[in-house]
Design a protein that fits this description.
It is built from five helices and five strands. By secondary structure, it is an alpha+beta fold. The chain has two domains: about 110 residues, no CATH class; about 60 residues, no CATH class. A hairpin with a 2-residue loop joins β2 and β3. α1 crosses α3 and α1 crosses α4. The chain is elongated and about 80 Å long.
């Protein structure tokens, strides 16, 4: 009898906290899901708008140095005539350092969402991603206490959980 109360206590506790963290994670999950879908197409102009950029950089750069300085995806020098270097999305004056090019940036709100998705440890925003990851980890682990051992749902949980783990491992092997 005493053991049954203890088990009931941990099940109730885990179910309650699983529900609370699940509700909190819904909004964050929507943002990460939308930005993840958009970022899957980052090599295209999906959900991006064209922006003209005019700025001055160090004059006298070589084609390779120019590509490094601009950090544009798919940068390629097309031709160089005199002081002007033409590349696939603009031009560079090697004497003055003036550069004009077209850039594609995510439209609002995806420009903000993608910053969450691509944050790095040097940015304070990464803590948001870490907390979200811990929340998802808790939700995954606490789901073991959603159904009592011996029930059909408990057995299904292990079956489908095992299939999910196997699919993830298979995916990692194939890529």
């Amino acid at each position: 009898m005493e053991q049954n109360k203890k088990n009931k206590g941990i099940y109730c506790f885990m179910r309650t906290w699983h529900r609370v963290f699940g509700y909190l994670a819904i909004g964050i999950t929507l943002v990460y899901a939308l930005s993840g879908i958009v970022l899957n197409y980052r090599n295209t102009n999906f959900m991006k708008a064209e922006k003209q950029v005019e700025r001055t950089i160090t004059p006298g750069l070589t084609a390779e140095e120019l590509g490094t300085a601009l950090r544009l995806p798919g940068f390629k020098v097309i031709e160089s005539t005199g002081d002007i270097v033409n590349f696939n999305s603009g031009s560079y004056n090697s004497v003055t350092g003036e550069v004009n090019y077209s850039s594609f940036e995510y439209v609002f709100p995806f420009n903000k969402f993608s910053k969450l998705h691509k944050s790095v440890s040097s940015n304070g925003l990464h803590l948001f991603g870490v907390i979200y990851g811990i929340t998802l980890l808790f939700l995954a682990v606490s789901s073991y206490w959603m159904h009592k051992p011996g029930t059909k749902h408990y057995k299904d949980f292990f079956l489908y959980g095992g299939i999910g783990i196997a699919a993830a491992i298979l995916l990692l092997i194939l890529i």
